[in-house]
Amino acid sequence: MRHVIESQQYDVAALEKLFNNTDRILEIFQAGGNRQTFCSSCVGKHMILLFYEPSTRTRVSFQMAAHHLGMTTASTENAGEFSSAVKGETLSDTMHVICSYHPDVVVLRDKKDGSAHKAAEIADKYGVSIINAGDGKGQHPTQALLDVYTIRRELGKIEGKTVLMGGDLANGRTVRSLSYLLSKYPRMQLVFFSPPELQMGEDILEHLREHRVPFLVETRSSVLPALLSQSDVVYWTRFQKERHTTAETADKLAATFAENYSIGPAEMKFMRKLSILMHPLPRVKEISLEVDNDLRAAYFRQAQYGLYVRMAILQDMFGKK
Ligand code: ASP
Predict the structure, then answer these.
(1) Is the alpha carbon torsion for 174, 65, 117, 93 positive or negative?
(2) Is 112:136 a contact under the CB 8 Å cutoff?
(3) Distance of alpha carbon 311 from alpha carbon 70, whole angstroms
(4) Helix H segments across the chain?
(5) Mean pLDDT, the chain, as a whole number?
(6) What is the number of other CB atoms lying within 10 angstroms of the CB of residue 90?
(7) Buried b vs exposed e over 243-266: b needs ≥16 C-beta within 10 Å?
(8) Active-site residue flag, 57
(9) Could you tell me which residues come within 8 angstroms of residue 296 by beta carbon, excluding any fewer than 6 positions away?
(10) Contact (Cβ atoms closer than 8 angstroms) between residue 7 and residue 177
(11) Residue-wise pLDDT tens digits, 152-178
(12) How many other C-beta atoms are found inside a 10 Å radius of the C-beta of residue 242?
């Protein structure tokens, strides 16, 4: 795989291969075992991280993943504010320049949907790979890979599960990439729960119809208890404040959201014993801190799996075969 641009590019066989390697990496770390097995597998490879939007987990875990595999990294600190973009440079000019410095991969996060695609067209001319680390409201494929891995690791398998996604589904990119990936597995049921103004995009619903994946769209907060009690995975997301242009609507929506679409101990009571609560993070107020000690709260484990999944992605792309 030259680039990682959108989650649909993976099929189940590719996912299984990736997840098996992730298991292997995780087990070596957890056993305090011999990291020699992977620490030099990508020596001589170079990564540039170019982030035009804030990031904590994606940026640091990619950097750490690269270092654990022996790659070097160079990173612009907050490219949205401190790079030449501020002076008016276009992404395509920046791509031409940084690709000419001979990196093997550019990990890119940008504000605009479709940027990763555009960047890949330029990167192809230089033989450089692009990994989409989030493009606006578009996709965040490596997040979806670690999300699906989390379900597999925590619940043993993916097929046949009911996955409830809640929050700002109109503006969150993780739920979009996750829906594409889950639609590859048999007997899935997807439930989209959000305020009426923040519903999942029609393009995703159309994709699910085409692939005959049963789904339900629900906006009434009164039915949340029933939805929670029927789900194996509860995947919550924050209100994407930065994607709303008028502060007034944003504040109003954020307030309704916090009041009616949050998970706290009372909501956890409705969840199944053997279910998990996931969140791509950052969490704002949509999951209360009291929930953290519940064993079903999987979000910090999920973030840690992100390191191992990203190592497996890099090994797959650049590891010595
Ligand atoms: N960190 C995730 C993303 O970059 C989720 C979020 O920001 O809400 O999309």
Answers:
(1) positive
(2) yes
(3) 11
(4) 12-30, 36-39, 57-68, 79-82, 91-99, 115-126, 141-155, 174-182, 202-210, 224-229, 247-260, 265-268, 299-318
(5) 94
(6) 11
(7) ebeeeeebeebbeebeeebbbeee
(8) yes
(9) 268, 271, 275, 276, 277
(10) yes
(11) 999 999 999 999 999 999 999 999 999
(12) 11
Q: Which two tokens stand for residue 162?
A: 């009911």
The catalytic position among 3, 22, 46, 58 is 58
Distance 240 CA to ligand 1 centre (A): 8
**Per-residue tokens: 167:** 């929050």
Q: Residue 267 is encoded by which pair of tokens?
A: 């909501």
Atom of ligand 1 nearest to the CA of 240: 8
Peptide bond into 54 cis (omega under 30): no
Q: Is the model's pTM score more than 0.90? A: yes
**Model confidence pLDDT, tens digit, residues 127-155:** 999 999 999 999 999 999 999 999 999 99
- Whole-number pLDDT of residue 321: 65
Site residues for ligand 1, CB cut-off 6 Å: 134, 140, 172-174, 237-238, 280
Name residue, tokens 């398998």.
157
Other beta carbons within 10 angstroms of residue 20's beta carbon come to 10
Amino acid type, 22: T
CA–CA gap between residue 307 and residue 58 (Å, rounded)? 9
Question: What CA–CA distance (Å, rounded) separates 246 from 264?
Answer: 29
- What the block records as the tokens of 215 is 């789904």
Is residue 3 among the annotated active site residues?
no
Do 192 and 155 form a contact (C-beta atoms < 8 A)?
no
